[in-house]
Amino acid sequence: MADDERRRMVRPPTGGESSGRSVGQRLKAARSHTASSQHWLERQLNDPYVQRAHAEGWRSRAAFKLTGIDDRFHLIHSGMRVVDLGAAPGGWVQVALKRGAALVAGVDLLEIEPIQGAHLIQADFTAAGVGDQLLAALGGAPDLVLSDMAHNTTGHRETDRLKIIGLIEAAAAFAVANLKPGGGFVVKTFQGGAAGDVLQQLKLAFTDIKHVKPKASRADSSEIFLVATGLKRC
Hints:
Blueprint (H helix, E strand, L loop, with lengths): L1 H8 L13 H7 L5 H12 L1 H9 L6 H11 L7 E5 L5 H8 L4 E6 L9 E5 L7 H9 L5 E4 L9 H22 L5 E7 L5 H10 E7 L10 E9 L3
């Protein structure tokens, strides 16, 4: 979660050019920060995916997680409808549109700067009526539901585990209830964080389930992504 919390606090790049300040200058300016903040900043500045995202105009390094997943599973197709849960700052929305999605509806607790071709909502996805807003924005059932949602950790392992499971359950329930037959679902989880009951339900609902850790996911992060394809309809 730490990576996602941090990336959402950084103002998205507006283009591919540098900010005009050197890495050394930015590190010098960061010396007044706490040790943990400075460590995170140093890691960001030295991260090749952060540098690529800035150079290529992506809003976050997380864009490369989705491109890595899509390169493997070929989930995004021309003309499809996509829902993005936990969409801020918009990197996954950008990827979906660039790879051919016709309509993308995204939601996050944080405000998302507008992206042409996307309908973006600032709201709690788990609140009543928000799911309906997303479906209305698409004008029909989605072909793909993406969830990069995460929560603010409390430091209490069991509490955090239950919150992780709650978000996965909410995203999975939305996907199963609303996807078109044959549709796909991608959800972020964490090693040891997903409940067996949720996984079992998804195995019943989809024809294939895979776990993947994209190259862009940091090695020291426990995050993994569950990719479910081929939604069944009775």
